[in-house]
Amino acid sequence: LNDNANNNAVTGNTCNSNTAYGIILYPDNSNNTLTGNICNENETNGITVYTSTFNAVTGNMCNDNLQDGIDIYSTSDNCTVVGNQCSGNARHGIFVYSSDDCSVTGNTCNGNTEQGIVVANSSINNTVTGNTCFDNTEHG
């Protein structure tokens, strides 16, 4: 979804082995739901939400991507990341970067080359609860 795409549902898609992202919201997209998608073996991230607010990423499988499974990036505030599986990614399972007021709950992040879940770079007021992270090379 691109340039002010608002109030959309992206549901039940298979987005594998792409030369960039499986699914990307960029820029300025809000109130979208990404649910039940399979985004595996992409050359960057499985799912990326970039400078987009009030979006929900729920129940997706984002495995074996060459960067992150799910990337919430650069003022993608007030997001919800719930019930996703992010395994075997070359960096992080879930990466929240410079984004505030996000909820990361009930996800499984295992076997990633770096961390399972990361909240970084002045991200403020985020909630990370009830996730299962194991067998990641660095931290849970």
UniProtKB/TrEMBL annotation:
Residues 68-140 form the Periplasmic copper-binding protein NosD beta helix domain. It holds the Pfam family NosD. Gene3D superfamilies: Single-stranded right-handed beta-helix, Pectin lyase-like. InterPro entries: NosD_dom (IPR007742), Para_beta_helix_rpt-2 (IPR022441), PbH1 (IPR006626), Pectin_lyas_fold (IPR012334), Pectin_lyase_fold/virulence (IPR011050). NCBIfam families: para_beta_helix. This is Periplasmic copper-binding protein NosD beta helix domain-containing protein.
